[in-house]
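Design request, tokens follow.
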């Protein structure tokens, strides 16, 4: 029986990057088999202007009346997937950091019914991450924090800080999303929840791509990540 697959895109101050994502999607033929749901988290810039230019019957766009936060916006998209009985879903960030070409591979991996989620790992080939201009402090931070996670949970992940995720919706329903953070630590908390519930997470290698952009959240994210590991441990 053919699976019902959803690609959801979370946007916030994405602007023309949404246009770039849609152009890339048109070049991936498998996307004709996927529904697309875009949820904008009350962007204060011109992101909405770019979203209104999208003319595609397979794309549904939703605008949040107030900012839900990164995690809150993902929860909204997941609830949409639950309500509309999708089998699997892939999340794409509106900043265009993760290429849409990996979406078919993520869905393919989810054909294994034992897998609850699949993530894209930039660190499976560590030299490639540096060639992709991952800042050295992020590279080292990723190594340290991922190894710490593996030590605490006896796992073997190569990248615990990726934003490219796919989900088996049926298995995800076993997780209480309301008890997961609405902020930037949503992904790490979901990973912990899946692990402690013995739900399998697989990885695929992906290219690393960084623009000349800097995040002000990395210290707070790292602090919260360590705090969460110790709490759940």
């Amino acid at each position: 029986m053919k699976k019902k697959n959803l690609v959801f895109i979370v946007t916030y101050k994405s602007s023309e990057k949404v246009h770039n994502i849609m152009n890339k999607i048109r070049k991936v033929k498998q996307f004709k088999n996927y529904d697309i749901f875009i949820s904008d988290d009350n962007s204060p810039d011109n992101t909405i202007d770019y979203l209104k230019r999208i003319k595609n019957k397979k794309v549904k766009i939703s605008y949040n009346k107030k900012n839900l936060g990164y995690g809150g916006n993902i929860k909204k998209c997941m609830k949409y997937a639950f309500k509309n009985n999708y089998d699997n879903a892939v999340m794409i960030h509106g900043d265009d950091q993760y290429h849409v070409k990996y979406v078919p591979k993520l869905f393919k991996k989810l054909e294994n019914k034992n897998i609850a989620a699949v993530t894209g790992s930039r660190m499976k080939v560590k030299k490639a991450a540096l060639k992709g201009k991952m800042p050295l402090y992020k590279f080292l931070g990723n190594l340290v924090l991922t190894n710490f996670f593996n030590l605490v949970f006896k796992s073997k992940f190569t990248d615990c800080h990726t934003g490219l995720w796919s989900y088996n919706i049926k298995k995800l329903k076993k997780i209480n999303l309301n008890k997961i953070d609405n902020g930037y630590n949503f992904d790490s908390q979901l990973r912990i929840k899946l692990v402690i519930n013995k739900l399998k997470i697989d990885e695929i290698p992906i290219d690393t791509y960084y623009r000349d952009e800097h995040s002000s959240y990395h210290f707070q994210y790292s602090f919260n990540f360590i705090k969460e590991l110790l709490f759940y441990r």
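Comment from the thread starter after seeing the answer: thanks! The radius of gyration is 17 Å.
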